[in-house]
Amino acid sequence: MFDPTVARLTYRGLLGRRRVLLLSGLPLLLLVIAALVRATVGADDAVTANLLTGFGVATMVPLIGVIAGTGAIAPEIEDGSVLYLLAKPLKRPTIIVSKLIVAIGVSVAFTAVPMLLAGFVLNGNSGQLAVAFAVASALASIAYSALFLLLGTVTRHAVVIGLVYALIWEALVGSVVPGARVLSVQQWGLSLAERIAADGTGVSSSVGPVAGVVLLLVVTVLGGWFAGRKLRTLSPQAGEA
Fold first, then answer.
1. Would you give the DSSP letter of residue 90?
2. Would you say residue 234 has pLDDT above 80?
3. Rounded distance between C-alpha atoms, residue 101 and residue 84, angstroms
4. Is the pTM of this model over 0.70?
5. CA neighbor of 103 nearest in space, from 59, 56, 153
6. Best CA proximity match to 48, nearest among 136, 121, 139, 135
7. What pLDDT was estimated at residue 240?
């Protein structure tokens, strides 16, 4: 279910100069903002939770998920080079799993690590906030990677649709509309942050931690499965593998 050659090619494609700049921009901005907030406001749990939720989980994490998830396969489909990969004696699930693992690794590296560092900068991990948001970011990134990888196999406008989802649904609708929150990856990730963080730190979610973990798992598994099914239709020999 994992091919190192596919993974290496995907890794090189995702971490090209252009995408590295895109992937690095938001984490660096988060760290700069965290340093400025700490210098001006001081260590404050509520301020830390608000910043890591609003900028981190609601904006940075889904946007990096879009870049990593769609970038793992969408460019190859758009330029037709995926057909050369599909002509190899590889099962379609192996291709998808290999690409998904790379996308997850990149997403987690560019979200969970900066969130952990920002949490320590903001309040020194008081109330376990740095760890809580790092875990929430990592788990949400896994689901986002699968979701946007699937999107990359379904449409040639994956990046645009992904950005609309990330900026409108997750950052706006999922944050303020009560009914929409239960269908938000952001809220599922925050359910774990709420569970880990100490009481009174201001971290809250609209779903429980068990439901959050189950929903994150369901989206990840179904996203990868449907992506594999869709990839078969792109093969010149769709009936094989």
1. -
2. no
3. 21
4. yes
5. 153
6. 121
7. 40
